[in-house]
Amino acid sequence: MRKWEDHAWSIGDLTMALPVVQGGMGVGISLSGLASAVAEQGGLGVISATGLDFMEPGRSVAKEIYAAKEKTDGVIGVNIMVALSDFEKLVRESIAAGADILFAGAGLPLELPGLLPAGTKTKIAPIVSSGKAAKLIAKRWQSRFGYTPDAVVVEGPLAGGHLGFKPDDLTDPSCTLESIVRDVQRELAPFGPIPLIAGGGVYYGGDIANVLDLGVCAAQLGSRFVTTDECDASPEFKQAYIRAGEDDVQLIASPVGLPGRAFRSDFLNAVARGDKRPEFCEFNCLTPCPKTEAPYCICHALINAYRGRMDEAFVFTGAKGYLAQEILPVADVFRLLKEEFESGRVS
Questions:
Q1: pTM, full prediction
Q2: C-alpha distances in angstroms, 127 versus 10, 23, 122?
């Protein structure tokens, strides 16, 4: 029988006992509480840097990293959106605070290696949704900085949050995680062995097993960890997952300029009617955001979701987030993932 414990893996000198990467979820959904709990179980825990300074005064990615490191000796990463107006500041702050690895998505992090100070131990990994993007990043990093990605995350069309696809791709049956992983593997082959992480629609342990069969090192899961005691979101946010059915999962347009996947809500219905257009920009958080021409203020909506004010918010989810049935400790989720991995249960 295939054993869960036989799949330890590494990114340079970072070693994870189990093939699980917890997806970075902002605003305020994956902070030190969730990331440290996942890392303590042998996975790679990830803090989202998005929106921390808007959530409450004095909150910072550095404080979240320090807090996570106090709770575990496991591996702690940080997810930073390239589209953020303070992307470079957050990268430098995360490195200074001792983040083990930085994941950069929602844009192409073409200049990221140039932000690494000499002698840093922090690893960097782009998040891509195509072989073309992976090749472009790897080629730029090598030509400009002599740097090869320490790892690459491949996100398929069933992922949650912002998606690196055109809307038509998301309904194309030929656009699958498997096909994208194969494409990325082909394009990155000339750059030498690079650890790959794949996610999007991964929920049960059997899904992880299937992802590993593609030749990647680990699977990325986001939605599965929302309904845990340690998840940093509000109880109301978690209950949105428990209440949701399959028909509640929908694609939305984001001011980032990318499509996203979220649960249907009264707020999003109001956005569709044109009732939520912001009168001014309070945060200036996203470089590509058209500000007052945006269909809604995503920062306001996600901060409200984190705080549980669901009448003025929406909830990002992966395509399988509706499968959540109860809120459990992270340790119990890992126990279930082991059982599902070894039994072959898939979503």
A1: 0.92
A2: 17, 11, 16
Residues 64 and 201 in one domain: yes
- pLDDT band, very low/low/confident/very high, at 171 (cuts 50, 70, 90): confident
Residue 201 domain flag: yes
Q: Is the pLDDT of residue 58 over 70?
A: yes
Q: Is residue 317 part of a domain?
A: no
Q: How confident is the model at residue 276 (pLDDT cuts 50, 70, 90)?
A: low
CA 105 distance to own-chain centroid? 8
Q: How would you list the strands of the sheet with 249-253, edge to edge? A: 161-162, 259-263, 249-253
Q: Using the predicted structure, report yes or no on whether residue 338 has a pLDDT greater than 90.
A: yes
Residue the block writes with tokens 């400790």: 329
What stretch of H or E contains 102?
strand 101-105
Q: How many domains does the chain contain in total?
A: 2
Burial class (CB in 10 A: 0-12, 13-18, 19+), 327: middle
Distance CA 86, CA 181 (A): 30
Same domain, 332 and 199: yes
Contact 342, 2 (CB under 8 A): yes
H/E stretch holding 54 reads helix 52-55
* Domain extent at residue 263: 236-312
Is 124 found in the same domain as 29?
A: yes
Task: Locate 100 and state its tokens.
Answer: 């083990």
16 contacts 10 by C-beta, under 8 angstroms: yes
Q: Does one domain contain both 65 and 197?
A: yes
